[in-house]
Design a protein that fits this description.
By secondary structure, the chain is an alpha/beta fold. The protein is built from 14 helices and 17 strands. The protein folds into two domains: 21-378, 3-Layer(aba) Sandwich (Alkaline Phosphatase, subunit A); 387-456, Arylsulfatase, C-terminal domain, CATH 3.30.1120.10. It has helices at residues 3-13, 48-55, 70-79, 83-86, 92-95, 120-126, 195-208, 232-241, 251-273, 315-318, 345-353, 359-362, 371-375, 439-456; strands spanning 23-29, 58-64, 130-135, 153-155, 171-172, 181-182, 215-220, 280-286, 294-295, 298-299, 319-325, 334-336, 340-341, 386-390, 400-405, 408-413, 419-423. The strands form four sheets. Strands 1, 2, 3, 4, 7, 8, 11, 12 and 13 form a nine-stranded mixed beta sheet that branches. Strands 14-15-16-17 form a four-stranded antiparallel beta sheet, covered by helices on one side. The chain has a two-stranded antiparallel ribbon with strand order 5-6. Helix 2 packs across helix 9 and helix 8 crosses helix 9.
Length: 474
């Protein structure tokens, strides 16, 4: 029996489904920082629709992307597995050609999400769901597009991680080394049309065309990734609003956040119009922390009070906004402080839908279902640690791994092997490194981190020239 036959058999073998199965709307922002929306403390940005969603949801205060960059986190969402286990630890364009002129050489890693993995969409489709992907995909070449991973429709999903521009016709070669990029499936636009608006329009059309079948909408905005381009009238509005002392000071970025919020509101409104909001789970998440580096000479965002940003394994690079609305089950307007991760969405959605999935795939799923937390936000998951592995370079980091054990967090840097230890309960900004003061705790966490890397066969960097006295673990 192959895995497709298994999925079909497993779906039929389940107890009779509820008369009105759940729909799923998964809204994924790109590079949205932990404090970029008002429910998480934004000072310049206006996000009333996301505020409304927060009031109707369980809002998580310690949600983590499984990686500090996009593709690995996206792979973890669809499979429930650590990026290191999948061998996808950096975005596609950099997977096969690591730099060789740095202190260590990052590993060559996978650029495609393997078809041997069973995605949440595949399980849902076998159970009769209509699955639609809209927006950014970035999980491989055309042979690995959403249609090959369980989606019935794909609008805009390609091998690229960012558009040439957010304005119609969404194509050009002005960025990314002159590579010509485009967003397919968006014909019939007109000058001035904005990508975030158009993707939402396509998503709303697809919701209405599900023909009574339960649906899974994977709505992946390119917002707020570079290029930093807001709609001109909104850019001007925020430029006038910036005041001394504000942490957020980029008017174009604020305009992009504003447009995203407006479109979240459009999605919520359509669910109400169709009278299906009461049986539709809505998830709002970001694929990694906010981009803190300059774009065209201007800092993009600030993840205060968290340290650093996209690319780093400090909190600013991996702690992200998350809210989940599950009408009639999850209490509204409450917060949950339990550490959770993008690896948890796969088992969560399957449990919500009453589906088991593929036994072989499930045997190596790393995530935990969040259903117990959604029913009782004060509960704890049966999990001791979360792990992160980024054996690559980025402007905010050198190659690094990390382990999070409740409030304790340890980072290991591969250039020289140095360890950093933080107590996030006392020091969420990671200002006080306790590794030297607490060597026993650091040693214990380091041993658990090393054992985990070995268990998932994590890809590791290599050293062109030794002599530092530190050898990278195998």
């Amino acid at each position: 029996m192959d895995r497709r036959q298994f999925l079909s058999t497993a779906a039929c073998a389940l107890a009779a489904p509820a008369a009105r199965p759940l729909n799923f709307v998964f809204i994924l922002a790109d590079d949205l920082g932990w404090s970029d929306t008002t429910p998480y403390g934004a000072d310049l940005h206006e996000t009333p629709n996301i505020e409304r969603l927060a009031r109707e949801s369980v809002r998580f205060t310690r949600a983590y992307s499984a990686a500090p960059v996009c593709s690995p986190t996206r792979a973890s969402i669809h499979t429930g597995k650590h990026p290191a286990r999948l061998g996808i630890t950096i975005w596609r364009e950099s997977a096969r050609t690591p730099p060789r002129n740095r202190r260590v050489i990052p590993p060559v890693v996978e650029e495609n999400l393997a078809h041997s993995e069973v995605t949440c969409a595949e399980v849902l489709r076998e159970a009769g769901y209509f699955n639609a992907h809209v927006g950014k995909w970035h999980l491989g070449n055309a042979e690995h597009y959403p249609e090959t991973h369980g989606f019935d429709v794909n609008i805009g999903g390609t091998c690229w991680g960012a558009p040439a521009t957010f304005f119609w016709p969404y194509r050009g070669s002005q960025l990314y080394g002159g590579e010509y990029r485009y967003v397919p499936g968006l014909e019939g636009g007109k000058p001035g049309e904005y990508l975030t608006d158009r993707l939402t329009g396509e998503a709303l059309r697809l919701i209405g065309s599900s023909a009574g079948r339960p649906f899974f909408l994977n709505l992946c905005y390119h917002t707020v990734h570079t290029p930093i381009e807001g709609q001109p009238e909104l850019v001007e509005r925020y430029r006038r609003k910036i005041a001394p002392g504000m942490r957020h000071k980029n008017a174009a970025y604020a305009a992009m956040v504003h447009s995203m919020d407006q479109n979240v509101g459009r999605v919520l409104a359509r669910l109400n119009e169709l009278r299906i909001a009461d049986r539709t789970v809505v998830v709002f998440f970001s694929d990694n922390g906010g981009f803190i580096n300059p774009y065209k000479g201007e800092a993009v965002t600030d993840n205060y009070p968290l340290r650093s940003g996209k690319g780093a394994l400090y909190e600013g690079g991996i702690r992200v906004p998350l809210m989940i609305r599950w009408p009639g089950v999850a209490p509204a307007g409450v917060t949950c402080g339990e550490p959770v991760s993008s690896i948890d969405f796969y088992p969560t959605m399957l449990e919500m839908a009453g589906l088991k999935g593929d036994a072989k795939h499930n045997a190596t799923v790393d995530g935990k279902s969040l259903v117990p937390l959604l029913k009782s936000p004060g509960a704890r998951l049966d999990r001791g640690e979360l792990f992160f592995h980024y054996p690559h370079y980025y402007p905010t980091t050198t190659p690094v791994s990390a382990i999070l054990a409740r409030d304790w967090k340890l980072l290991e840097y591969f250039e020289d092997g140095h360890l950093e230890l933080y107590n996030l309960g006392d020091d969420p900004s990671e200002k006080r490194d306790l590794a030297a003061a607490m060597p026993d705790r650091a040693k214990q966490l380091h041993a658990r981190l090393a054992a985990w890397r070995k268990s998932v066969n994590a890809p590791m960097p290599s050293r062109p020239n030794s002599g530092t006295g530190y050898e990278i673990p195998k």
